[in-house]
Amino acid sequence: MSYYFCIVGTRDQPLFELEFGTSKQGGDGVARFSQEARHMNPFIVHSSLDFVDELQWTNNQMYLKRIDQFASSHISTFLTPTSTRFMLLHLPHPPNTAPTSQPMPNSFPPFTPYTSVPPSTSTASRGTSSSSSTSIPNNPTSPQTEEAIRQFFGEVFEVWLKAIMNPFASTESKIGSPVFKQRVVAAGRKYL
């Protein structure tokens, strides 16, 4: 699964952005977004902010779970007490596919970040093992994935709190600390 993590401030500006891939079950930790998807990810996350604004008043939880979906991309959100939003776009890797290396012209609205797979191959590989269909890299809607994302957000929230406790930092300024980035990457490796 490929991930695009973004911290969005109260004025809807990105404060931190990071792309990474899954490290669980043999993943190498590299994001496998196509070139087109890399450009679309910030727009997809930004379009989901309307759902966050609606849900924050009807839900008293900090972790809002999976709030939106665009094509095969899913967006999960964590809302801090200061209304800073942690947004995680996760895109599952289709089985037996390789990401496309060239942008696909005129592919919008059918957003296709990966090459297609014959239906017989994808259904056969899904039906062979029940554990692989519920694993984090294969199923973005499973309870295991939801729990892993919740734990990832919890750890990133702790690191973010430590970063904004700096008296010279503002909650609305970009986070450029390499230590912060390393700890977010470590949390991604640990849980996702």
UniProtKB/TrEMBL annotation:
In which residue ranges is the amino acid composition biased (Low complexity)? Answer: 113-143
InterPro entries named among the record's database cross-references? Longin-like_dom_sf, Sedlin
BP GO annotations = endoplasmic reticulum to Golgi vesicle-mediated transport
Give the matching SUPFAM superfamilies. Answer: SNARE-like
The source organism is Letharia lupina
In terms of superkingdom, the source organism counts as: Eukaryota
Annotated segments matching region Disordered: 93-145
Coiled-coil spans are none
Q: Which GO terms describe its cellular component?
A: cytoplasm
Protein name (record): Trafficking protein particle complex subunit 2
